[in-house]
Amino acid sequence: MHAARRRLAAVIVSAFVAMWAGACQAPPGPEASPPRKALTPVDPTTGGASAALQDPGEFGWTLFVFLSWPALANERGVPDFDKQIGAPGPTVWETFKSTADVYLTNGSMPAPWNSPFVVASQSPEWASAAAAVGSVDSPYLHYLSEATMIDGRQIVDSAARIVQYEVRMNRDAFEYVVNNPSGFELFNLEGQEAALNDPAYTFNFPVPAIEVKAAWRILEPGVDDSRYWTSYGIYTDENGKAKLSKVGLTGLHIISKVLPDWLWVTFEQQDNPTATFQFYEGQPGVAVGPNQTFNPAATAYNTKFQADLAGTKWQYYAIQGWQTAFTDDNGQPTLFANTQAETYFQSSSSCMTCHSLSSIGPPQTPRLTFWNTANGNVEGYTGKIDFQAVARQQYPNATFKPMDYAWSFRNAHSTTGTTTSKGTRR
Q1: Could you give the C-alpha distances from 203 to 182, 199, 424, 426, in angstroms and in order?
Q2: pTM of full prediction above 0.85
Q3: I need a labelling partner for 13 at 20 to 30 A (CA). Which of 150, 204, 335, 382 fits?
Q4: How far apart are CA 111 and CA 334, in angstroms?
Q5: Which is it for strands 230-236 and 138-143: parallel, antiparallel or unpaired?
Q6: What is the torsion angle, in degrees rounded to the nearest 10, for the CA atoms of residue 169, residue 171, residue 172 and residue 176?
Q7: Measured between alpha carbons, how far is 364 from 421 in angstroms, rounded to an integer?
Q8: SS3 for 169?
Q9: What is the Cα Rg of the chain in Å?
Q10: By three-state DSSP, how is residue 189 classified?
């Protein structure tokens, strides 16, 4: 393991020396360097804020490749240099801890970071169901804890099978939540309330922190899975029972604390516009269509990296855009969405603005709402907002504290096991 880490450090250093040298000779952009013949897992966050701001498209794709690289066996969040991207097995991000691993229903201490991750064939409960489903790219078990988007709505495939979601965090984010230096147990409601009541405490994740949100469609037998990264997903079916199915990745939203307001990048599987649908009264509606917030500058990056990924399923994924600021150069709010997670409100979707309202308040109203109803419409907040002004508007007599853009905190439960902070302000 130490040898692998040393090799990782060496690759990172050499890669960024080359990147810096190239930046001194030519303007940044996808044409600034020749096409690669082989990809290498490089964590771009080690380059700091300047790398993210100078060329967020390149940064975002490099981060996607790093996170989608096969993971080292028995070592969460570490790439295996002896494998190539697209090889069977869990990816780096799939071995991150999920919110289900961190925010337990009784608010108790989660298992340590490197606790074993479960392969389907080794699960006494799910091995037979996995065998019946057949082979997948990643044999990891994904416990898909959400079947709705943040607006409470859903999307489906043509057979009305609901797209499912999960949120995962890397080790730096996990340790901040679970072993916070303050001593606050941020993995439960009581610990978050204690942090609220300490005037000296400010929520502030470490710079290497990363979270991902993945969207998965259910792939029943007969559905073509040749263009999807596949795994085993466990979710609650329409009868309220846990079920295992083959699932295909349709979207991956990535946030990195490399910037003070985090860097936001989002990827989608290329068939989404015609393969996923809005959902009305139990039936598929119109197709979700193209991403309304697609950044035209993303096209050149997609062409470059998809060529590098030719022959793997990752060639069928494309960056939709990135967000590094609340507003653009003209002072207009930056819109940013993923069709698989913000389908119905893309015209008022700003991930950065929405997440700036991540909050902890009094027990009876622990979270602010991220919906703006000031004009009589229900829409997302956009642009730079005043957190305390919004808090006073929503709850004039309550005290709220921002939680450094991490809405995943809302998955926390009380140690009494009788309440969760999630549903009240959804």
Answers
A1: 10, 11, 22, 21
A2: yes
A3: 204
A4: 38
A5: parallel
A6: 80
A7: 9
A8: strand
A9: 21
A10: helix
pLDDT tens string 97-123: 999 999 999 999 999 999 988 889 999
Please compute the mean of the pLDDT values over residues 152-175 and round it to a whole number.
Answer: 97
Tokens of 215: 């969207």
CB contact at 8 A, 250 and 268: yes
Longest dimension (CA), the chain: 61
Per-residue pLDDT of 193-202, as tens digits, reads 999 999 999 9
Closest CA to 168 of 100, 86, 108, 260: 100
Question: Which residue from 137, 303, 321 is spatially nearest to 219, judged by alpha carbons?
Answer: 137
Give the burial class of 384: count Cβ atoms within 10 A of its Cβ; 0-12 exposed, 13-18 middle, 19 or more buried.
middle
| Distance between CA atoms of residues 64 and 95, nearest Å | 14
For tokens 């991902």, name the residue.
212
Paired strand residues for 327: 333
- Cβ-contact 341, 215 below 8 angstroms: yes
Side-chain half-sphere CA neighbours of 222 within 13 A: 1
332 pLDDT exceeds 60? yes
Report the distance separating Cα 204 and Cα 391, nearest Å: 19
The tokens for 131 are 């065998």
Residue 422: the pLDDT is 58
Give CA–CA dist 133/245, Å, rounded: 7
Q: How far apart (Å, rounded) are the C-alpha atoms in residues 218 and 233?
A: 8
What is the dihedral sign for C-alpha 366, 371, 375, 381? positive
**Alpha helices (H) in 276-320, listed in sequence order:** 298-308
Length of the chain, please?
426
